[in-house]
Amino acid sequence: LVWFPFGRDGDVAFFDEKFRAEVAAELTRPELVNAPVIRVGLSSNGGFTMLLAHQHPDRMLACVAHQPLPPWAKGNESFHFNRRTETRSSLVGTPHDISQSFRVPCIQQAGENDPVCGTVMAYGLDRYARSQKAPWTYFCLPRGGHGNVLPNELLMPWLEGVIAQRLPADVDLSKGLPRLKDINIEAGWLAN
Q: Which of 65, 82, 142, 157 is most buried per CB count within 10 Å?
């Protein structure tokens, strides 16, 4: 399942089994209850995508973070941008461990002319993640600003590579949750 939420209220529900069962029933696809998630986020939602990967590494197939601005990252302690509902969040201005998110492949997209995030955040996160042997990568969109998304010509082959390497070849969602395979970065991961 691909999940591109508007806000973060849906994230809690999305990992709730009852909610997933309702979605699967509405789509008349009961096996989707067991589907792993590809989570997409833009800006601070890109940061929350990484945090959700940390909280659910066995359910998250991949992260796609467009211009990620993690409000929990060091240096973003005062990140609020007048988001009243987030100012009391336990995530804003509080450092969080995201080490388990390094098990989940992540592609970050920065924009060359992004006035909000710039390119430093994505590069810094990617550099640190790679030092932790994480299958993470980034792409800088030339002339891109804040709110641009990865071109499909880049994203789709990356996702196909991730899916091929993480899901068992004989996956059958009707039999339960699939065990996602870890990607060994030393083996030469070619999906990026």
A: 65
The three state secondary structure string of the chain is CEECCCCCHHHHHHCCHHHHHHHHHHCCCHHHHHCCEEEEEECHHHHHHHHHHHHCCCCEEEEEEECCCCCCCCCCCCCCCCCCCCCCCCCCCCCCCCHHHHHCCEEEEEECCCCCCCCHHHHHHHHHHHHCCCCEEEEEECCCCCCCCCCHHHHHHHHHHHHHHHCCCCCCHHHCCCCCCCCCHHHCCCCC
Q: What is the spatial distance between Cα 108 and Cα 95, in angstroms, rounded to a whole number? A: 20
Place of tokens 């467009």: 66
At 10-41, the pLDDT tens digits run: 455 566 778 778 888 999 999 988 989 888 88
Whole-structure pTM value: 0.80
Per the structure block, which two tokens stand in for 191? 């999906």
Which residues in the chain show pLDDT less than 50? 6-10, 76-89, 192
